[in-house]
Write a structure and sequence with these properties.
By secondary structure, the protein is α/β, with parallel strands linked by helices. The chain contains six helices and nine strands.
């Protein structure tokens, strides 16, 4: 058994009945999206436990082998080629261990949301599409479906019932919006219900997006 990832846990109110496991992007850490909790409109929602994990550190090829927090290695700027399948699968197991911990804490899978930005978004889809039970939702911010050809083969029937929220910046220089659109279209072709938004921003988060996240949480949790 691998060691459980370090996490920052924040509860919106006591006795949480929902968990959101929210994964950071390349080179960031668990603190990255903690401030977002205060920005979200959570009025009327049940108590939520936000779980922000730290990815392990590793050398990242595209950054000259510099060691940083990363869910998997990135070999080239063309994200669709030479993908780190072994790294993706290893991190998937770590995310699944966090899901299992929430279940052990009393929160069932259908009240657990996976969320992530950039690399964390890729991990949300890598993990979420392969679950054998329906989750409450997948919140996918500025990312893409990794190892997409394998996702086509490995996605589960149960996961098709999990709603997907997917957003991207039209001027994103890190992950082009076209890559995200390809992922969105693939998910729809597979039968997923995808709510899509795009914004006039780069590889970041904007206020309109925060409002859309809050509205989506109400739709999937109430």
């Amino acid at each position: 058994m691998s060691t459980l990832l370090e996490t920052i846990d924040i509860e919106s109110a006591p006795d949480a009945s929902v968990a959101i496991i929210w994964m950071h992007g390349l080179g960031a850490d668990a603190n990255d999206f903690v401030p977002m909790v205060r920005e979200l409109d959570l009025r009327g929602l049940p108590a939520i436990r936000f779980v922000f994990p730290n990815a392990d550190t590793m050398p990242v090829t595209i950054n000259g082998g510099h060691v940083m927090r990363s869910w998997y290695d990135i070999v080239a700027t063309d994200l669709g080629r030479h993908e780190d399948e072994a790294g993706l699968r290893a991190s998937q197991l770590k995310v699944e261990a966090l899901i299992a911990r929430e279940v052990a804490r009393g929160i069932p899978p259908n009240r657990i949301i996976l969320a992530g930005f950039s690399q964390g978004c890729a991990m949300t889809l890598q993990t979420g599409l392969r679950q054998t039970e329906k989750l409450a939702g997948l919140m996918c911010l500025s990312g893409y479906v990794p190892i997409a050809d394998l996702a086509v083969k490995e996605h589960t029937a149960a996961s098709l019932a999990t709603p997907i929220f997917m957003v991207h910046g039209r001027m994103d220089p890190v992950i082009p919006v076209a890559r995200a659109e390809q992922s969105r279209d693939l998910l729809k072709q597979l039968g997923y219900q995808v709510e899509w938004h795009e914004y006039p921003m780069q590889h970041s988060v904007c206020q309109e997006e925060v409002a859309h996240i809050g509205a989506w949480l109400k739709r999937v949790l109430l």
